[in-house]
């Protein structure tokens, strides 16, 4: 049979036996049923794909559906919650599709439990009408889908494949928080959007999403990776640290301080390292490299894991004569000239400093440097950080850029911080920035080989320790304080 010439609609659609939706008043039981539905659906797709690869006759188009969580509220009663999430603002029907319940079990249980507690309503769990793309069903078990050229039939004629029309940020951007059936969004991301990011994370970082922790450090230099590994090994040598293992690119996991950590022959674009702790309460470090495009890519995909905080700890250009190489900059505002988020978050939107993050960073600087108060001002300035998309802005007419830097009262310039903060604002992930001055272009102190002195390397070590310590302080902060209501809009999803 020449399947290529056969119209798709001539093939009947086969699905796994469709289950009836069930009501739950126990969040753990609801998540268990979600997992049951998801496992049945993905197993069906994998089995049918295996049959087709092994030469089985193709008599149908195969389709399975994501599980769906749905709630209905009827009251305008004001919710007494100090959380910025866990409730809906007004009566109505709310729903979301769900993927990878094995990965998101704790998150789903927590979020469903809060909604039940705050509204006193059960949740309905059942199959959705959103098909699971074959690629995502296979990747959940470590399978891969071969290139279409390796198949003797058009893949899209037989299975559903990723559809870009269903993988957008309309919910978090506030463009469309109603689904096609009229229900409102219960969660910030749809299942297909999450699956897409999970696949991209694996590609860009060379580590599976299971290893990512709830506290994420971003950096733009390899120096920090080396320091992070040294810190991780020291933690593994200390049974009282609470950390259990360290994971590098390729998924290599070590539990002993002296265990070897093999390097990949070909490093990924954004190598990630994970100092793990029970409950994903450890720290992940991502070397995003240079530029706002990389910063957006990393945060776009990590956001679906719903981390509790992310911080930028990297190098910057100091813009004030009073600064010295190795000084720190704590961002309390951002001048956005990165241009990668202009369509999603206009530049007229202010990106506020978050008090809990700022306090944690300043406390960490004081603790590591053993300076405080007025003495701390010698090595750290608080002010506006400018982020630009042109690494060589110095080679053009400088009057325009320098004037804008002066008008914004900028004290530092980099290529990632504002992007990371703006995406934190957009995705409701608490954010912050602590940079280390590595050159001073306005004052003739450019990056030269001799500047990588012992002092400079010492500052990198201190800087990384400050970032780690800030994350440890944030880990001790209650969720209701850390997830700021400043990041929530008029009409929000109930799920964090």
Describe the structure.
By secondary structure, this protein is of the alpha/beta class. The chain has two domains: 198 residues, amp nucleosidase, domain 1; 279 residues, Nucleoside phosphorylase domain (Rossmann fold). The protein contains 13 helices and 17 strands. A five-stranded mixed β-sheet has the order 2-6-4-5-7. A five-stranded mixed β-barrel has the order 13-16-15-14-17, surrounded by four helices. Strand 9 and strand 10 form a beta hairpin. The protein is globular.
What structural keywords apply?
496 residues; alpha/beta; Rossmann fold; five-stranded mixed beta barrel; 32% helix; 2 domains
Radius of gyration: 24 Å
Say what the CATH topology of the largest domain is.
Rossmann fold
**Share in helix:** 25-40%
Straight-line N-to-C gap: 50 Å
In sequence order, what are the helices and strands, one letter per element? Answer: EEHEEEHEHHHEHEHEEEEHEEHEHEHEHH
| Quaternary form | single chain
Per DSSP E runs of 2 or more residues, the count of β-strands stands at 17
Unreliable stretches:
1-8
Main sheet specs: 5 strands, mixed
Q: Strand fraction band?
A: 15-25%
SS-based class: alpha/beta
Specify the CATH homologous superfamily of the largest domain.
Nucleoside phosphorylase domain
Mean pLDDT equals: 88
Number of helices: 13
Under CATH at level 1, the class of the largest domain stands as Alpha Beta
Brief synopsis:
The protein has 496 residues and is an alpha/beta fold. The protein has two domains: 3-200, AMP nucleoside phosphorylase, N-terminal domain (amp nucleosidase, domain 1), CATH 3.30.1730.10; 206-484, 3-Layer(aba) Sandwich (Rossmann fold), CATH 3.40.50.1580.
């Amino acid at each position: 049979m020449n399947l290529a010439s056969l119209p798709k609609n001539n093939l009947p659609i086969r699905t796994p036996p469709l289950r009836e939706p069930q009501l739950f008043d126990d969040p753990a039981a609801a998540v268990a049923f979600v997992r049951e539905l998801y496992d049945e659906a993905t197993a069906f797709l994998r089995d049918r794909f295996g049959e087709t690869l092994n030469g089985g006759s193709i008599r149908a188009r195969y389709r399975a559906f994501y599980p769906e969580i749905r709630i209905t509220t009827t009251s305008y009663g004001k919710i007494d919650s100090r959380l910025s999430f866990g409730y809906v603002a007004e009566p109505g029907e709310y729903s979301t599709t769900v993927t990878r319940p094995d990965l998101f079990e704790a998150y789903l249980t927590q979020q469903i439990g809060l909604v039940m507690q705050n509204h006193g309503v059960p949740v309905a769990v059942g199959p959705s009408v959103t098909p699971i793309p074959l690629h995502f069903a296979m990747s959940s078990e470590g399978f891969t889908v071969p290139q279409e050229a390796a198949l003797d039939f058009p893949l899209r004629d037989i299975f559903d494949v990723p559809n870009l029309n269903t993988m957008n940020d309309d919910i978090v951007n506030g463009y469309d928080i109603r689904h096609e059936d009229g229900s409102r969004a219960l969660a910030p991301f749809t299942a297909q959007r999450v699956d897409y990011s999970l696949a991209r994370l694996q590609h860009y970082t060379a580590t599976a999403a299971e290893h990512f922790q709830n506290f994420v450090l971003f950096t733009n230099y390899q120096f920090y990776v080396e320091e992070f590994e040294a810190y991780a090994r020291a933690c593994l040598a200390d049974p009282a640290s609470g950390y259990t293992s360290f994971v590098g690119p390729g998924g290599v996991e070590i539990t002993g301080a002296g265990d070897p950590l093999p390097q990949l022959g070909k490093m990924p674009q954004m190598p990630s390292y994970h100092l793990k702790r029970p409950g994903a309460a450890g720290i992940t470090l991502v070397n995003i490299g240079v530029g706002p495009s990389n910063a957006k890519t990393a945060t776009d995909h990590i956001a679906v894991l719903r981390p509790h905080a992310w911080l930028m700890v990297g190098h910057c250009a100091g813009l004030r004569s009073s600064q010295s190489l190795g000084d720190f900059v704590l961002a309390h505002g951002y001048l956005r000239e990165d241009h990668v988020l202009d369509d999603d978050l206009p530049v007229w939107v202010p990106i506020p400093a978050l008090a809990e993050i700022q306090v944690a960073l300043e406390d960490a600087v004081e603790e590591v440097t053993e300076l405080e108060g007025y003495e701390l001002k010698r090595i750290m300035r608080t002010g506006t950080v400018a982020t630009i998309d042109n690494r060589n802005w110095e080679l053009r007419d400088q009057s325009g850029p320098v004037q804008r830097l002066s008008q914004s009262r900028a004290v530092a310039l980099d290529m990632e911080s504002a992007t990371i903060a703006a995406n934190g604002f957009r995705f409701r992930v608490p954010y912050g920035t602590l940079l280390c001055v590595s050159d001073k272009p306005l004052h003739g102190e450019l990056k030269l080989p001799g500047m990588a002195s012992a002092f400079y390397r010492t500052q990198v070590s201190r800087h990384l320790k400050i970032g780690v310590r800030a994350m440890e302080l944030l880990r001790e902060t209650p969720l209701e304080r850390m997830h700021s209501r400043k990041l929530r809009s008029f009409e929000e999803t109930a799920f964090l």
